[in-house]
Every structure is written in C-alpha cells, then in structure tokens.
Write a structure and sequence with these properties.
The complex is a heterotrimer of chains A (about 425), B (about 325) and C (about 200). Chain A is α/β, with parallel strands linked by helices and about 425 residues long. Chain A has helices at about 75-85, 105-115, 140-145, 160-170, 185, 195-200, 210-225, 235-250, 260-265, 285-295, 310-315, 330-340, 345-360; strands at about 5-10, 10-15, 20, 25, 30-35, 45-50, 55, 60-65, 90-95, 120-125, 150, 175-180, 190-195, 205, 230, 255, 300-305, 375-385, 405-415, 420, 425. Chain A has two domains: about 5-55 and about 370-425, Urease, subunit C, domain 1, CATH 2.30.40; about 55-360, Metal-dependent hydrolases (TIM Barrel). Chain B has about 325 residues and is of the alpha/beta class. Chain B has helices at about 10-30, 55-65, 85-95, 110-115, 135-145, 165-175, 205-210, 225, 235-240, 245-250, 270-275, 280-300, and strands at about 45-50, 70-75, 100-105, 120-125, 155-160, 180-185, 200, 215, 255. In chain B, helix 1 packs across helix 5 (about 135-145) and helix 5 (about 135-145) packs across helix 6 (about 165-175). By secondary structure, chain C is of the alpha/beta class. Chain C has a single domain (about 25-95, about 105-175), classed as Rossmann fold (3-Layer(aba) Sandwich). In chain C, about 25% of the residues lie in helices and about 30% in strands. The chains are: A alpha/beta (about 425), B alpha/beta (about 325), C alpha/beta (about 200). The interface between A and B is medium-sized, with 21 and 24 residues.
Chain lengths: ~425, ~325, ~200
Amino acid sequence: MNGHALVIRGGEVVDHRGRRVADVAVRAGTITAVEPGIDAGPGVRVLDASGCVVAPGLVDLHAHLREPGGEAAETVETASRAAARGGYTAVVAMPNTDPPIDSAAVARQVLELGRHALCDVGVAGAITVGRKGEQLAPMAELADLGVRLFTDDGSGVQDTRLMRRALQYSLALGITLAQHCEDASLAAGGQMHEGTWSSKLGMPGIPAEAEELMVMRDIALVRLTGAPVHFLHLSTAGSVAMVRAAKDQGLPVTAEAAPHHFTLTHAEAESFDPVYKVNPPLRTDDDVAAVKRGLADGAIDAIATDHAPHTQEAKEAPWDEAPPGMLGLETALSLALTELGLPIDAVLALMSWQPARIAGLIEHGGPVAPGRPANVTVIDPAERWTVQPERLASRARNTPYAGRPLVGRVRHTVLRGEAVVVGGEAQR
Amino acid sequence: MKHLLSVQDLGAEGVHEVMRLTDSFVEVSGRAIPRVPALRGKTVVSLFYEDSTRTRLSFETAAKRLSADTMTFSVSSSSVNKGESLRDTVETIEAMGIDAVVVRHKSSGVPWRIASWVNASVINAGDGWHQHPTQALLDCYTIRSRKGDLGGLRIAIVGDVMHSRVARSDVDAFAALGAEVLLVAPPTLLPASLEGWPVKITHSLDEVIGGLDVIYLLRIQRERMTEALLPSLREYRAVYGLTADRLRALRRDALVMHPGPMNRGVEIDAEAAEDERSVITAQVSNGVAVRMAVLYLLLGSGADLVAPPAGDQ
Amino acid sequence: MAERERTVMPPRGGIFVPKTQVMDAADLRRAVTRIAHEIVERNHGVDDVALIGLQTGGVPLAHRLHDALRTIGADQMGSRTDVPLGSLDVAFYRDDIGLRPVLPEAVTDIPFDLTGMTVVLVDDVLFTGRTVRAALNALNDYGRPLAVQLAVMIDRGHRQLPIRPDFVGKNVPTRFDEQVDVADDGVTIGEIARPQP
C-alpha cells in the first residue's frame, strides 16, 4: 500500500519531550511522520485536529471492567468504548471480578476479551488467592503472561506479615504491588467519610485514619523490603503528605488519585443518592485541596479513574445497601482540564506517560514520534459540554457528574493506527 | 408543604404551627366520637420496613380519625416482597392511588429517595439513625403542655446519641424553639463530630441533673456491647441510668421523658418511669394528635409551612 | 363571619375597606336584646337551651347573648338563668378543604353534653350557608341535640344551601363580592382590597 493510511492534521503535538505544531501520519499501526504540512494523498483518512492537542493516548491504571461475572453493569467491550471516548488507548483491568484474576486462566480470559476492544486491555493480578488476604496468588505465572501490577483492590491486604512476604516475593519478578489502603477493622460498617456530615446524616463513618494507617504501614514495609509499592486512589491529606515525605526520602513509591477525590466532597451525601457512595469515600474540602496539591507538585504520579460501573437497580437501593463506585473513563480528562488549573502537558503527564511507566506499558504514553505505535488521542481543550448519563458509552449510568458543565473534550482516538473514536463518536 | 422528612423542613415557625394545630386535634381525640371528615377520600399508606407496632398504629389511628383510608405494608408481615426493590415497591403502591406514604426504614435517607420517585406526600416515621420528626414534634408538644414555652429550658438528652434518630430530631426541634440542649453520654456513644450542633456536651449526668427542666432518656441497645462501645449495661446504668438516687436529685418540677420502648433497669429504673414527673404515657397519647396535625397539614389544609431557605430575612 | 378571608395565610389575606354602615353600636345592643327575648319566647324558657358560637365572629356575639339572657331574669325564663355556652371551629368540617388554606382559628370548646338539648348556633353573618352546614355536621360528632336553631346578626342573602335562620338581627341585601363586618361599634358593608405587592 502506498501513501499514509491516516493523517492527523492541524493540531499541536504535546508529549513528554515538549510541544510543537505538527501533523501526524500513521500507517499500518505505526507513526510514520510528525511534522507540519503533511500531504495526505488519495485514500488516506484525515482527522481534523485544528485547535486541538495531539497527545499520546491516555493510560488508566485502575478500571473495573466487570467481566467475568458482572456483565449486567459493564463488559470489557463497553468499558473500552467508554475508555476510547475518554481518550484512553490503554486500561488496566482490576482483578475483583468473579472469578477474580488470581490465576493464569482468568487472566488469559480477560486478555482475550481485550484483544478486540477499542483500547488495549492489560490486567492487574490479585496479590492473594481469591483476594482473601490469606495466601499468595501465583504471581510468577501471571507475570509470565505480562502482568506487571498486582493488587487485591476492593480490599487492602490486612495481614502485615503476608504483605511483607508478598513484597519480598515481588522483587524477583520485576512487578509492582498496588495497595487499596483500608484498615478493615477501623473502617468496618462505614458508609461514608467519618466527619461532620456522617454525624449529621446519621451514617457510620470511615475515618481518614483507616486509609492512612495502611499507607504508613506499607511505606515502612517498602523501607524494610526495598520493593516498590503503588498506592491506589489516595483520598486524604494525611496520605498525600506521607507519600510526599516517602518520595523525598527516595523510597520507591508511586501513587494515584481519582477524579472524584479532587472534585467532590462528603457534602454530596446530603442527598442520600448512592451515586455519591464510593470507597475510599468522598472526603473534606481540605482533603480535596491536598489531593490537588499532590497532583501539582509530584507527590501523586497519576490520575486513575477507578471506573466502577453498577446497575441502576443496585444504585437505587438504600445508601447502606448500595455498592460503592462511580463511572470515570469518559469524564476523567475533562474534569482534570476543568478543575485542576494545570497546563495541559502537566495533565497529560498525570494521565498518559506517567501511568504508562508505572504499568510497564511501553507501547503507550508516547512519545509521538516516527516508529512509535500509533496510540494517540486528539483533545479539544476548549470544547464545552455537559455530562448526560444516557449519552455515555458505558452500559451503566452511575456518574455523579450528570448535568455538570465541563471544558475540554476528546475529539478523536487512534488505537494502533485504527481511528476508534472520530468526532467524539465511537466507530464500532 | 409536600413532605415531612426532617424537623429542619419545618423550622421554628413550622414547629409552632404544628403544635398550635395539635391543640385542636387533642380536643377532637377527647370527644365521644373522635373523628372529623377533614381527609375524607384521601389514602394514607404505612410502609414499615422496620417493625414498630406502636408508631405504625399511632399513624394509622391519626389517619382514621381524619376519615382517611389506610393501607399497611410491613416487611415483617411479608406483604412487602423482600426481593422487590425499594423503588419498585413504592411505585407499585403509588399506582394504586395514594395521597401519602408514611415510611420507616433501617437505612438513613430512604424517605428522601422515595420522595424523589413518587408524587405522593412522604412522611418520615424514622430513617436509620437520622431523623424521626414526628417524635420530636410530640416531644415538644408534651413539654409545652406541661411547661409552656420551651425557650430557655434546660433539656438533657441522655444516652446513645450516636445511633439515635430521636436524638437528632429532638436536638433540631428543641434548639429551634430556644431551649438549651445538653447531650449526656459516654464519648463512645456521641457522634464523631458535633461541630455545628447547637448543644453542650457532658459525660457526667450527676454533675448536671440538679439543674435540668427536662431529662430525656434514650434507649440503650444490647448490640452496643458487641461493638465495644460499652463494657456492660450494668456500668452504663451506674453512670448514666435514671436510678432512684438520681430521681431524688432531679427537681420537683422537672419532666422525665423517654421515646419508648423502655429498658427498665438499664437507662431508666421502674421507679423513675412511674414517678409523677414522668410524662412518658402523655408522649404516646400526644403522638396521635401530633400525627393528625401533620397529616392534616400535608394533605388537607393547603397551608404552606415550608421553612424559609437559610439566608432569607 | 362566614366567608371572611382567613388572615393566617399572607397571600390570601386582605384589608377590609368599609363603605356603608348599616347598624351602629346602639342598634346592635337593641338587636341582641331582642334576639335574646325571642330565644326565650320560642323555647318557652331556656331550661334545655345551649348557646354555641361559631369561630370567630359568632363567639363574641354568643357571649353577648349569654349575658343578655342572664339579665332578662329568672321569673321570665324559668328555673335557670345561666345558659351553657360553647364555641365551635368548623375548619375540619368545611367542604372546601384542599381548595384553599384552611386552618382552625381556635380550639373548639364544648364543655357540656348537648344530647337532648336545643342548641342555638350563633354567628355574626349568614351568607352561603356552608359554615352552618359544616357546624351541623360537627355537632353530630358531639352527640344528638334535640333541636338546632340558628341565630345571626346579619343575613346578607346569597344562600347556596337550604338553610334559614331562626333569629335575625337585620336583613341586609349585598352584592356577592361585598363583605360584611360585624364589630362592637356597628355593622359595616365594604370590600376586600388585596394588599399591594
């Protein structure tokens, strides 16, 4: 085949090397040229990127794809469609499926489902069998399949000795353990953040310390073992401060934060609408400010959505019976652009190349350069839009942002050279 | 005013209006034929997910005395299908043509959710630990009938405040009427944060009991021991129970109150429950008249008692 | 009182603007005395008679009738001079509940058993008759009177129900949209002006 298969024209390329006005040409899944004034020629698709930023595709370290076992709320396919519309070219699937991803067989199943998805799907394996926190999962077997991140997400590993052993074991495999920091005994029965609102609304609370104690413990275990740890969904000022201090001491820790933890607070619970119920819970204004500061100054390395779809029926139950979790893939980038007050290259660092590095996904995160896989997203930073749950690509509708006006939106997403999202619409 | 979900829906003005109206319904209830046709043709449904014969009967009596028709759905009698979602249940009930639904549920916030799904008026008969507005109204009415205006009265609420919807509603109502509210409890039974609550706190009942106008005792549940909130009921009674000794320290003109049902020998000794200062039975009988007033206000009167939004005036 | 606008609800309240006085204070006093005599005459004394004033306008009038009956004297009235007196608020019996704000003005107080008695309902103004009809319904819930009679100071016409007064102070024809105000210093016809926004 002669000529280029796809040209992204008229945009400004932004990656970790810098910014430049340039068109991007793609053929057979690879970027072939990045320079201004590329001629398209006949039979070549042109994606208009005027006024837009052309960036490496976003990478989500933390999404619940619900397959196998929870297909009523979402499947790998529907989640990947939501991801692509949100600018993601890669997503790491969390292992709390049914059955959980604690064996090569289930990992293979999810990876296979991801092969035909609208984004690349990696998986995180469980640290313990069944995520029960009792016995180590076969991490070497899973690492052979390319799994690089391991977590019992949904729960934290409660037993300190077991966590130490898991960290030691991980050193030999070149993998990273990720922790959902929650001390189960302190958090037990809690429905929302423990504080002024939980007291007023008459709901049992989860104190900030339930998260912070495990952050503190795992930092100590990192110091003890020398193994790296990635902290999932940090939500409290105390957690952010501890991670910052640990990094200052040169410890191999990384951290992520979810968009809802820098945009919403526990005051939302006043409506008793379980769309606002999430774990870790929405916290105080001070915690939100600390998370934003952490994202700005490097204490937090990545924004990860913790995309957690649930059926309408599940989220219409009374608050204490409803499962925690919110959608995130389609709104994360816009929320980051609208609310953080950071320049776009800082936002892209948090959402593309830094998470790509943590996940070990070398084909994602850029740079946008000839020879690199064509995993790219085109973002209009000025487009105004309003979140409408019924227009989202997810099978589920549990977004807390319904009706919220946002600035910044994905126009196109290219996955390995295929234009999977054009003009904001998924192509399949 | 469409719903009564929380005392804060009424504000001070609204609470006064309910009490004024209750006077008329006390009179109605005292007649040979305790009935008025005011809500004839209206249907009031009790939807009780938590067992509570006394509150449910109180509401149903109130509705019947207003000549409304009543229907009862209680989970314990299995007329509510346990597998059916809350939303399906209420929408089915509404499709039968109802004007008001009186809801009690173990989960905080359920009445607010129901109000967002149905056109009928919603009355909160108790949601989780959160609110029990008609209890607070009948408590205010009972105090007013014995001591007049609540402004300046020293009222102590004693016991498990953390888990008590009665306490939360009473704090709102008593404070709105100008009373000085004191919470008396061990630290483990107080909410995590009392910031913004119009109350004083003490951990010593003996220190304050001599100066009280009203002592309001909350029920202590046995489960609190398994949750490591209390070492034993015996210890609780020793420090916070209204025993015969403490009864002697209480002023002659003070009132003893309890939302029921009582754990005699734990938070209140039998002697205290039967003391002449106890208005516990009056609370129950006032409950019907207060609920008649609430039903009448929501379904009959056309009057609008919504508290003005904070910031106005 | 009949159809006077309830002042409880600000949006519906209004200000009474007087136009014509039809009775002065002296006329009122004479009418009260005459009605009291008529009650005694009609009932051959007041042995089984009770007075019940309708809130709110009928209550002061019922008190004045009660005092007038006491003054007439034992020899004329038989064994009793102090007639049982009560007041009745018909809010809960009104047929327009739900159509407009209806809250009781005061608590009903009927401190006697009216079974077997002749109850004289007292109101200041008789208009459509709906208040009286509500009062008749209410009385049923207190017992079974032997008879019910109606005493009003002013009959202003425009009846919508088959109700007629037994004792009338004065017949005063009015337009439907006018108002009649009965006060201690006299009776005045006027109009309701809505408060300016």
